[in-house]
Each structure stands twice: as structure tokens, then as C-alpha cells.
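User: I'm writing a short report section on ligand binding and want a predicted complex to refer to. Could you take this sequence and nicotinamide-adenine-dinucleotide and write out the structure as C-alpha cells? A short remark afterwards would be nice.
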Amino acid sequence: MSIRRLADIRPARGKLGVLLPGVGAVASTFVAGVMNIRRGLAKPIGSLTQLGTIRLGKRTDNRSPMVKDFVPLAGLDDLVFGGWDLFPDNAYEAAKHAGVLSSEHLDPIKDELSLLQPWPAVFEQSWVKKLHGTHVKTGKNKADLAEQVGDDIARFKKDNALDRLVAVWCGSTEIYRKPSAVHATLASFERGLIDNDPEISPSQIYAYACLKAGVPYANGAPNLTVDVPALLELAEKNGMPICGKDFKTGQTLMKTILAPGFKARLLGLEGWYSTNILGNRDGEVLDDPEAFKSKEVSKLGVLEHILQPHLYPDLYQGFHHVVRINYYPPRGDNKEGWDNIDIKGWLGYPMQIKVDFLCRDSILAAPLVLDLALFMDLAQRSGMKGIQEWLSFYFKSPMTPEGLYPEHDLFIQLMKLKNTLRYLRGEELITHLGAEYYD
Ligand SMILES: NC(=O)c1ccc[n+]([C@@H]2O[C@H](COP(=O)([O-])OP(=O)(O)OC[C@H]3O[C@@H](n4cnc5c(N)ncnc54)[C@H](O)[C@@H]3O)[C@@H](O)[C@H]2O)c1
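Assistant: Sure. The C-alpha cells for the complex follow:
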């Protein structure tokens, strides 16, 4: 991850291009949100980069600047948006279709939002079975498609006089796949692009093109994409930050808030049953068992890592964890996530907790896209390359190097993120020891 204390951070001068593979509900809610916020029509609620503060020094020092004043981040006025989709709808039409934002937030920015016209996608139906796109690139092989994505990026950069770019995948969830031989090295991957290897997914073609073009890449979906040795090698070689996987928004966010609390109090867990109803296009895509498998793997790992049954066998050995998602069109983007949690206390007496989260999926995800775009740009200007574990805070299934288990506890993740910022700026890390107040 290569973090340097008191890093020499290049200033955020000029325009930052934000590339969005997938201009659907999340991406259009994010872009429309930024347009509203920069006109002063709404607040960036949910965004750490915009509303967060960071404590520096002792509790008695009263130094808690805004995160955005502490580290040099791109300003919202400097963001320019581009994207790809297999449907030709512009971002305004996509937002209308998604039905997340009301006309109060769409009418004032209609013209500006309509300018985000997605470029044709790299798409193979075998990777997202439920979608049938028309706005799709053709090429003689996957290397050719990667080159076309690279051309889109170069044109976008030139036309908008951009200084830097970042990419955040907001496309649909691809079917579950384990890494294969073609993903082992950059050389085998590049050979696979020419040979049209079926194991190379469309998202990997975008990621490859971005990393080649000097664009950091964040993955908001559970599919592997950059989490394979070949693309890690490319990221390291080109000095590019990467991170993923799968935005941590609704039910998993709740899980990583609650489970650390049970563990802190040494309360046991017998089982955690989670079910969701969801009616947006994402829900439709996840109705395919192979796409759901990607999501399930991403959602299931969380409790095991937080609760560490091997260290606490009396509390957590063999707990049951079930996750279901059901496509239910009447709900649209307004997902309902139910959790039934069977816990146990003193002498093993059972108790239950029920959580019913009536959430809005894209409203929860949009600020994460913004923070990831700004922090990935900061990482690149700070000379940080490879996996950005300090951004685990944003993901259900954080990327880590081989052999290192991911940190899922939201509070540890936040401490890691803020300590990374302190470290970059040469400030003392906060350990919460607090002995100095009593000396
Ligand atoms: N909203 C959340 O809370 C949340 C949380 C975690 C992860 N995610 C993930 O974020 C992604 C986006 O979610 P959404 O609700 O916006 O879904 P969506 O279906 O509204 O949007 C996804 C868009 O991606 C497009 N797409 C699919 N494959 C593509 C490709 N190869 N190239 C370009 N475009 C492609 C689709 O046409 C669609 O317009 C999904 O993978 C979802 O699982 C969302």
C-alpha cells in the first residue's frame, strides 16, 4: 500500500474526471447529487470527505478540522463525469428510470445531467444473464475492446482538459467466478485478451484499460475484477491505487456496526438470518443465482471475520448465517432488509434482536462513490499504489493481500482510515491510550 509519513502530496489542481462504468441507479444518484450539492440545493449527507472531521493531537487541543481541509481533496466544482452503459439512456433518463430522486432534485439539473451520455459498453451477456443491451462495443478480440475503452478515456480527458481521472465501477454484478490461470500474471492476462479468453470479464477489460491509462480503479460490486494477481501486478507496475469490493451500504453496514458490539460485550451468537426485498435493476440482476452467488460470498464473510469463532469457540462456534435477496418490483430502489439475530447471554440464556431497515439503496451508496473518487485521487497524488486497505470502510468484502484477513469492523476501519490521513500529513496517530491526561 506504500503509505509515506508526511507524504509529498501533489496539490489537487485542475479538473478531476470521474469515470463510471455503469450509469444506472447508483451512478445517476451520485452524479445528480453532486450537481445539486454544488448549486447549494442539498447537503452531502453520508459523505466523510464533505461532512467529516478529524481529531488531531490531544482531546484538550480542540483541533478537529474538516477532513477536506486537512488533506488536499478535489473540490466538487472540479469534478467532470463520464461513463459507459449498455443502455443508451443519458444520466437524466437513467435517474428517471431508477426512480430514486424526485423531480425536486432532477428538474433543476436536467440539462446538465442529460449531458452525461454513456459511451457504448464492453458487455457479454454470459456475465450478466438478466440484461440485454443494445449500446455495446464490438471488436476483433478483448484486447481491441480494451483499446477502445482506452480511446474513450483519452478523448474524455482531452475534450474536458482534465488533469487527472479516477474510475468507480457502478455496473451490475457479474456472475461468480474464481480466478483462473489467465489471471495469474499480467503476461497471461494480456495473452488472454488477444486470445479472447472466456474467463476475462467485461469489468476486467475496463479495469485493465483504466490502469494502463493511469486511472485508479475502485470496484463497487462484488465481482473479482481487480482482485486477481494479474491486475494487482499492473497496478503495482503503473503505480496505481486499486480497491474494492462491493459498497457497504444497507444490511452489511448494520452487521458491521452490530456484530463488533456483541463481541465487545462477549455476547454469543447462535444465528443471524438476513433477508431482503429489492425491486430495482440491481435486484433483477441478482435474481440470477450465479450473480447472487457473487453477492452471497461478499456478504457472508463479514461475521466470520468479526467474530473470530476460532478465538471464541464458546460464543461463536458453528453459528448459522443465512443471507437471501428476493426481487420484488413494487419496492423499486427502496430495499427492505430484515435481520433476525439469535444471541445468547450469561449461562447461555437466549435472546433475540430484530432489525428492519427500510433503506434506500442508492441514497446510501452515492456518498460512498463520491468519497472513493476523492480518496482514490488523493492516494494517487500521495504516491500510494496497489491495494488501498485504508478504504475498507467503504466495502463489504475489502481487498487485502494474499494471506491477510480483512478488517470488517466499521469502527476499526474508520480508525484505520483516519490514521492513514494523519500519517500522510505527519500528525500523531490516535491510539486512545490517553495516559497523558493523567500525568
Ligand atoms: N446500491 C447499493 O446500495 C449497492 C451496494 C453495494 C453494491 N452495489 C452494486 O453497485 C452496482 C450498481 O448498482 P445499481 O443499483 O446502480 O444497479 P443498476 O442496475 O441500476 O445499474 C447498473 C448499470 O450498469 C450497467 N452495466 C452492466 N454491465 C455493464 C457493463 N459491462 N458496462 C457498462 N455498464 C454496465 C447496467 O446497464 C445498469 O445501467 C451493482 O453491481 C450493485 O450490486 C450497490
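A remark for your report: The chain has a mean pLDDT of 94. The radius of gyration is 22 Å.
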